[in-house]
Amino acid sequence: MSTSNISFVLRAKTPEDIFGEITGSARAKLATLKTLFRRLRSSVAPDKNPQAVKDANDAAFKLRKFYEDACKLIEDDLYGKPRIMLSIQSKRSTYNIHSRTLDSSKDEDWSESGMFFDATTDTSSAVTIKISKSTTCNAFMQSESKLLEGTDLFDANTPVGLRARFPRIIESFVSKIDGVDRHVLIFEKFDDKFMSISSIKEKFDLTNEDKQLAWMLKRMLETAAFIADTGYSMLGFTPNSVLFNLDTHEVFIPDFTFMTKLQTKATAMSQTFASFYPPEILNADGVATSTDTYMIAKCIMYLVEGHKQLSWDKCITSQFANLLRAATFPNKTTRTIDAPTIYKRFNEMIYDRLHWPKKFEQFAAKKR
């Protein structure tokens, strides 16, 4: 429990993220705040977390700072209310990042190189901002901006539906934030209805929901096939970095941190989801066209793994399970299933052998 509280504190971006909604008079709010602070302070104390002393120290320092900020906000009657948290100036515009409201959905760690925020321009236009997490992440974000601004991936002939699955960049620059030079990417505002695979797994039970898993798999395979045609591999099909709109069945990929040219060696990978990578990446071998499909299959397995204490292959039909196994053979020369091939096989399975109707299936999985 303590280590989860440490992660909870370290992920927070505002006092409201940590202390949540506080009601009553100013005096009552301060009393409630103090109780919440003391309870959390005890759980993240370094002596209670000998296995994570550095993270515990960082969390304790951040918790104290946010507690002091929250006290001031309550005294000024600003706690829980939208406010400008940070202003960033570029040659083109001023971007104001507002504190997230308590019901905000932009609470997920979609990238290992940057933090995402909703913001407005000096003309009140809504945008999404990505700020590098550290100076070591600046190089990743610079590469990301070149890909999004260049023509390697997208041009005038890119189908509109596929282009909508990726961010549209407005500008890219370096700004000094908290005394550190950080790379900043400004995007057209992301749709708030998208939810990460991690959040979907947390909120819904997808056991025996093959038809829901099917459209998610198809959207990811379509996306991977498009990226492969440009000569790249995403290397970013992980539960935190693949987002779905459960109403429209669309997919959105917000992060390009690990994108790598095919047949070259990957220079970086997700540390959080290292187990999602095939052996060729872990062994510093060349990236294959089947590398992304391996990771996509792992994402589907992850969505059902552990529900009702069942292994992933007990939560879906045997034909579906066999297809995912074929996509995750360790040896890439044996695997040899790229996105277009597995997409074709999958369609043959669900339409020709299982005889599923070709119709839109409203998302109706049970909540956990």
Distance between the termini: 20 Å
What is the 3D shape? Answer: globular
The secondary structure category is: alpha+beta
Mean of pLDDT: 88
Q: What is the count of helical runs? A: 13
Q: Helicity, in percent? A: 25-40%
Low-confidence stretches: 101-105
Major sheet attributes = 6 strands, antiparallel
The number of E-state strands comes to 13
Widest β-sheet, arrangement of strands: 1-2-3-4-6-5
> From N to C, what is the helix and strand string?
HHHHEEEEHHEEEHEHEEEEHHHHHE
- Proportion of residues in β-strands: 15-25%
Radius of gyration: 22 Å
Structure overview:
With 368 residues, the protein is an alpha+beta fold. It is built from 13 helices and 13 strands. The strands form four sheets. Strands 1-2-3-4-6-5 form a six-stranded antiparallel beta sheet, with helices on one face. The chain has a three-stranded antiparallel beta sheet with strand order 7-10-11. Helix 3 (26-44) packs antiparallel against helix 4 and helix 7 packs parallel to helix 10. The protein is globular, with a radius of gyration of 22 Å. It starts with a helix and ends with a strand.
List the helices and strands and how they pair.
Elements lengths: L1 H10 L3 H5 L6 H19 L8 H23 L8 E6 L4 E5 L15 E8 L4 E7 L5 H12 L10 H4 L5 E9 L2 E9 L6 E2 H7 E2 L4 H20 L2 E2 L9 E3 L4 E3 L7 E2 L17 H4 L8 H14 L13 H10 L4 H4 L3 H15 L12 E2 L1
Antiparallel strand pairs: 1-2, 2-3, 3-4, 4-6, 5-6, 7-10, 8-13, 9-12, 10-11
